[in-house]
Description:
The complex is a heterodimer. Chain A has 8 helices and 2 strands; from the N terminus they run H-H-H-H-H-E-E-H-H-H. Chain A has helices at 5-27, 32-36, 47-70, 75-78, 82-112, 146-174, 177-198, 214-234; strands at residues 117-118, 141-142. By secondary structure, chain B is an all-alpha fold. Chain A binds chain B through residues 1, 32-33, 46-49, 52, 176, 178-179, 182-183, 185-190, 193-194, 196-198, 200-201, 216-217, 219-220, 223-224, 227-228, 231-232, 234-236, 238-241, and chain B through 73-76, 78-80, 82-83, 85-90, 93-94, 97-98, 100-101, 115, 119, 122-123, 126-127, 130-133, 165-171, 174-175, 177, 179-180, 183.
Amino acid sequence: MTFDTTTIVYMLEIIVGGLLVGIGVHFVPVGGAPAAMAQATGIGTGTVQLAAGSGLTGLLSAGLMMYAMTLNPNFATEGYSLWPILLTGACGAMIMMDSTMLTGSWIYAYAVGAPFASAKVNYDPITGFSQPPYVAPGTVGQGIPTVCFVSGTIGAAMGGLGGALIYFPLVLINGNPALSAIFAIGIFMVDAVLASWNIQGTIEGFHDPKFKKWPKAFKSCLVATVILALVAVLITPLGGV
Amino acid sequence: MTVGGGAAGAPQAIDPKKLRIYGLAGSVIGIYLAWILNTATGTNIFSFVGALAALFGVVMGANAVRRVCAYGIGTGVPSIGMLSLGMGVVGALFGLNFAEQLGLGILGVIIALVYSLVFGYVVGTIANKVMGFNIPIMEEGLTDLSGAGTMAILGWAFAISGSLSYADIVSTVIDTGFLAIIFICGGLAILHPFNANLGPDEKQDRTLVNGVMVGGMSTIATGICALMTLGLAAGMVQIVVGFAVWYYFFVWYFRLAKRDASKVVGTGLLPPSAL
């Protein structure tokens, strides 16, 4: 392989993608097991599942966009263009996360019968609604209030953008979409788990006091992704392509 | 809670260092043994030995999971299993590809293992130093987990492809998407044992036996994949071996579960005077 400017650009894209994933996790309202019992604010599952879900849908939609570009009759001369791929990835992840939060909200509202309230703030920063009167005693909020929904959408957009930003250079490096996808999942998992360890499992979104811990995740993901990006660019298209 | 005789009969816990040596040596030797048998006989019938080699890695990984997660990591046990396989998939693909570029061919397994151990150590150091986990065995545990994930992926990938060459693994395991099955089944074998057995009466032998049991089920899954890639004979052998491993360890696990279970004594309802 040759190590030139293009390689460095690919590496930077992968590193920025990994950092976006790591920071994006901090925006997603992860409630964990308590939220599944409507005893905490957020989506009732773990960070890794949500991050993997939004990342994989981001990868899928980015891959779909890349395939759609190859159908362009002028593809041979024009090649791929980066921005539509990244935006498609972000939209795919946002759709996944929003549909998860929306259907989850229906269950919290109509099946569990819990009012949506955050225990971390007194007033919802977006709607300005008062929160404490609606927090059931002994719980730390229920459901997915507006601010968490907005925060989750931002987080999913960052995750999907990051996933697409990892996937796109990998396809250009090794020319094998299947290999790139599984490799991108590997990078994604490492960054998502490091970030979820940083938030200790649960977070409500950008209004949560835990959100201020993001520089730690930034540093950790930076070190981890640099090592991963180094080996990612070393993989060359050999056989099976 | 063990009531009556449970703890007394429990065998001595196996030292993690010993398990690490068994896990690494067993999986590396197993994969190469499978490769030698396949090459020497000119068939792919011995691919199932690769799946058995993966089980050694799984035992090492399950032990690392129970050691690290006993401290409490706040995100649930599945996250660490997915991290293990995430590191493993990167290490395995890099090792195989890099060895092929250098013209070393079959040494890919060693390169993948060395890379993943180093990367696991770095991630462990980050977790302790930057995140402030302060888990004394974090570096050790993540080094083990990274190696275990890599060996699990390589072992089961060999079981599906029947070859250690990068081109074969790409065309039979990656392009077909079977790597996703290995990813999740291997992850289950590493993370599920502690997730299922955790609690105050968690015992090392019960957890590890559970790991091998799930590994046997994963081998059945890769055997079904091998039906497509290696043909009927090699696939069926793998399914039968996977079933045998699962059955043997399931019976063993059931015995251990009965050993550790507490007796429930029916005391009847509260007397009316107490209500």
